[in-house]
Amino acid sequence: MSIRPYKNTMPTLGMRCYIDPSAVIVGDIMCGDDVSIWPLVAARGDVNRIQIGNRTNIQDGTVLHVTRRTANNPAGYPLVIGEDVTIGHKCMLHGCTLGNRILVGMGAIIMDGVSVEDDVFIGAGTLVPPNKHLESGYLYVGNPMVKKRPLNDAERQFLAQSAENYVLLKNDYLGD
Hints:
Elements: E1 3-4, E2 12-13, E3 18-19, E4 24-31, E5 36-37, E6 42-52, E7 57-58, E8 63-65, E9 79-81, E10 86-87, E11 92-94, E12 97-98, E13 102-104, E14 109-110, E15 115-116, E16 120-122, E17 127-128, E18 133-134, E19 138-142, E20 145-150, H1 153-174
Parallel strand pairs: 1-4, 2-4, 3-5, 4-6, 5-7, 6-8, 6-9, 7-10, 8-11, 9-12, 10-13, 11-14, 12-15, 13-16, 14-17, 15-18, 16-19
Antiparallel strand pairs: 19-20
């Protein structure tokens, strides 16, 4: 079964979510409305929580995880993903916070304590080291990441359009 409890805590799904049968989501995970989680995604809300906002899509092979609470870090690092976010294929998101209308390119890695403001484009293969803050309205690329340039109007519009495209695709899968 792809949706499983951890210590009696079951993932919760909003309305019209699509979870591919090959994905595995476990524990304290809350998905908003119209979320789509695609093949081979692994999401473990075991030692902290995962929150996924409305109309967000998590693409094939992505890993979502968290960091436990400790004496030195009493809150640990939950994973919080905003609304209208596109997480590309084979990404790794670990204990970070993403705002709204963000595109995370294929193979990107975003580490503990990172905070990303709204309207950000993170290029494919980018590594965002722990505790970095990414400012709204920019393209970030590289390993380690660098702030490359401001987003243009077409790129800003694409952030919301990408999320909408995946809502339409998940509706096809649901037969809506």
